[in-house]
Amino acid sequence: MKPILLLAAVLTLPWLQQDDPLTRPIAPEAAAKWIGPQAPIRVYSNTYLVGFKGMNVALIDTGKGLILIDGAVPQSVHDVEAHLQQLGYRIQDVKLILSTEPHFDHAGGLAALARDSGATVVASSWGAAALRNGRSPADDPQVAWLEPFPAVSRVRVVQDGAAIRLGGVTVTARATPGHTPGSMSWTWRSCEGRACKTLVFGSSLNPVAADGYRFTSHPEVVASFRATQARVRAMPCDILFSAHPDNSGGPEKYAALARGVRPNPYLDPGACRAYAARSEQALAERLADEKAGRAK
Length: 296
Prior knowledge:
The protein has helices at about 5-10, 30, 75-85, 105, 110-115, 125-135, 220-235, 250-260, 270-290; strands at about 40-45, 45-50, 60, 65-70, 95-100, 120-125, 155, 165, 170-175, 185-190, 195-200, 240. It is an alpha/beta fold. The strands form two sheets. It has a seven-stranded mixed β-sheet with strand order 1-2-3-4-5-6-7, sandwiched between helices. A hairpin with a 2-residue loop joins strand 1 (about 40-45) and strand 2 (about 45-50). The radius of gyration is 20 Å and the shape is globular.
C-alpha cells in the first residue's frame, strides 16, 4: 500500500479519530434502550420522525428552513444528521431546535446539533437555564440520578403560548410542567391538500423521581401535574408524538405506517386524552405507593 493511502487508512480507525466532547456517549447502557435504529419517515405533510425506536426526534420542513424537536443523546447525533440526509436535507438547513426538557436523554444531543447546524435552541425559561448549565437544578424530582450533558450556549427563552414562526409554519409553546418544572410541549398545523391537522409533540408526563423523593411532600408538583394533565386532555390533537414513543403507542403506529397501512395510523384525535389518562393513572399509583411505604 502506498504511504499516503496507508496513512489515510490508519487515520480513519475509530480509536485514532479526534474526540468530540459534544458527542461523547452518556449512560451507554441506558441509552441503548432508547436509540435502537429506526429509518426516518414522513408522518404527515411536512412533518417527519428522524429519531429512534425509543426516542422521538421530530422534523418540520417550513419551506424556509427546518425545525427539529428534541435532540436525543450525544452519541445519537450523527444518526440524526444521517437521517436528515436520507430525506434529502442537510443539518445546515436546521434553523430552530425546540426542547421539551433538559434531561440527557432528550437534550444531550442539542449542543452538537446546534453547533453543526448553527440553529438556535428554544426552551422554557427553566429549561433554558438547565440547558446552559448542562444539568437540571435541585427542584427537578429526578435530579439525584440525572447525568450531566453538554451545555447549550445559545438558547432562546419562550413563555407558554409563544408563537414561533419560520417559513409557512407556526409552532406554539405549551407549558406542561410536572415531569420537570419547565417541561414544554409543542403544537403546530400541517396540511395535506385541504386536510389540515393539529400535531402535538408532547413532553414526558410520567411521574418518576429519584430514590427518596416524595411527591406527597411536594404538593405544588402534584398540582402542576394535574393542571398539565387537564391541559393535555383538552388540547386539540390529531397526531401525537410523545417524547418516548412507547408512551403513546408510537412503535405500533410507526410500524403500521411503514407497512403502508391506511388510513394514516398516526391520525388519532383521542391520543392526547389517552396520554393524559395514562399520566393520571401513573400519578395516582405513585401517590398510593408513597402513602403505603412502597416507594423507594
